[in-house]
Structure formats: C-alpha cells, structure tokens
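Inverse folding, one chain.
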C-alpha cells in the first residue's frame, strides 16, 4: 500500500487524494503535522524540506508532489 504524507491545508494533497480515489489506488494518509517521525522521514526524502504530498511505496522509494500519471506508472497500473 502507498503511504501519503500530507497536511490538512495542502491543496496539492487534496487534489492527489481525489485522483487516487478515482483511480482506485489504496493509500494510507499520514499528517506530518501530527507525527514528528513522519515529518522527519519526509524531510530526509526531500533534502531537508517538509514537502507534501510525498508518497512512500512498499519498496521504500518516494515520489514528491507526483501527478496521478506518475503514481500509476510507479505502481504499474
């Protein structure tokens, strides 16, 4: 399953969630404002920045602010 790191105020996160829902892509959402370990992971994945949405895939790789096309390509769907 994909893990999406987000915040409540992120418009890009909301847009990607809608697109992933429409595409039938399951994900777990983690709010980095409520989870300091998640915020640290996002910063490590993004050169020290808390950039969201950042997605973590089962293979441990990440995509930052991806399009739905990039997510589908990564998942092979």
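Residues assigned per position:
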């Amino acid at each position: 399953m994909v893990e999406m790191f987000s915040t409540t105020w992120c418009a890009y996160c909301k847009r990607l969630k809608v697109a992933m829902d429409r595409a039938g892509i399951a994900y777990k959402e983690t709010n980095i404002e409520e989870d300091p370990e998640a915020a640290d992971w996002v910063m490590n994945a993004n050169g020290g920045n808390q950039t969201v949405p950042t997605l973590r895939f089962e293979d441990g790789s990440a995509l930052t602010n991806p399009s739905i096309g990039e997510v589908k390509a990564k998942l092979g769907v």
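Residues 2-64 form a domain with the Glutaredoxin fold (CATH 3.40.30.10). The first helix runs from residue 11 to 23.
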